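Continued from yesterday's entry.
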Amino acid sequence: MLDLSYNNIIGNLEGPLPWLHDGLEFLDLSNNFISGPLPKLLPTLIIYLSLSNNSISGSIPSSICEPTNLEVLDLSANHLSGELPRCWLQGSSLQLMDLSNNNITGEIPPSMGSLTWLYSLDLSNNNFYGELPSELKYCKNLVFLNLGNNNFSRKIPIWIGEKLLNLIYLQLRSNMFDGNIPPQLAQLTFLQVLDLSDNKLSGSIPRSFGNFTGMTIYSILNDNYEFSLELDSDTLIYMDSLSLVMKGNSYTYSKILGQVTTMDLSGNNLSGVIPEEIGALRHLSNLNFSGNHLVGLIPEKIGDMLSLESLDLSSNKLSGAIPQSLSKLTFLDYLNLSYNNLSGRIPSGSQLDRLDDPSIYIGNAYLCGRPTSKNCSGDTAAPNSTSNYANGSETSMWWLYLGMGVGFVVGFWGV
């Protein structure tokens, strides 16, 4: 084992490097200042290789496929470019591949479907394009799949929901996927994070999305999500990280990733109504449908989502009244209903009363009540109706007495 991570090492990995001998199983040079290309030859017995957060450039050599014992490959946050090698072989031991935050381009090679032991695949923040190869459906052990911030296109494949049944984290955000969202995704019963935001998806939200068991009931995975690797007598822990938009801001989750449950479909061209079945997701903490063309009412059953901390339905075409059931969401600390066609009195309640920012409701011309400055009809008259009646009665009595006095004087004078 050789661990020189988090130092100030400079230089490159070119030329003869005697310490890269065949007996080396664990090599961690992450978080340094290493530059230049990747070495063309790697130790044949290497199991764990991390060169992340350096300045390594050039393409990934085909020799990366040769160490058949390799289980963890982390080359994230470098300056790698070119296309992925197509040499991935059946029988590879690779379980975790992180190539995120580089400049890698091209399509995902179909040979990656031979990585049947793959547990985590992160290709986010690169320049990949094209459609997802159907061969990836053979990676049935995938738990973590992050392909966000690329240029993938075509439809989201149906086989993701039908074949990758162990998925817990699925992020496809900021690509160019189009067409309808496949309802088959709801077959991913363990799914806790579904992020399809900022694509070109159209059609309606599938009603089957109320069936995600991982967002409905509490799971033991919520407490402890991590990837462990046995190396002789040592147990090595590797934690995936994921950047998500929560409560209006972007956060990166790693250690507490297992506690995150989110559904983000924002920034698409979705239409139709919000399905009532969404209310069954009682363990969901973040729901974001903003920036679409959704119509109809906000379902009353959203009030059943008792774990909800963040709800964003802004910039749609929703109409009708805001359901009073939102006041039951005691954990809700971020709400955005702006720029819709909502109307009526804004409901009150212990939690809603704390969300007193008027921008939550801006862009809804027919909403009234606190925290907006617009009063609802009857708000001024109703509290003072008793006093107004008393004032009116008192005025009538004065007129009565005055009339009686004038009548008496005129009558007496006339007689």
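--- second protein ---
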Amino acid sequence: MPQLNPNPWFFIMAISWLTFSMLIQPKLLSFITMNPPSSKPQMTTSTTPWNWPWT
């Protein structure tokens, strides 16, 4: 069965992985996020417990 022969497929996978990690990934990571996280303190909300009628 030719599907089980890893010779051509491993080379294609290795070349595409190297292309992604060397060329495409640095270009994608260089973009500045449009919505950077802010250092605002989180607001805590107070909740009231629910009184279940059957307990």
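The radius of gyration is 26 Å. The first helix runs from residue 6 to 29. Will compare against the first tomorrow.
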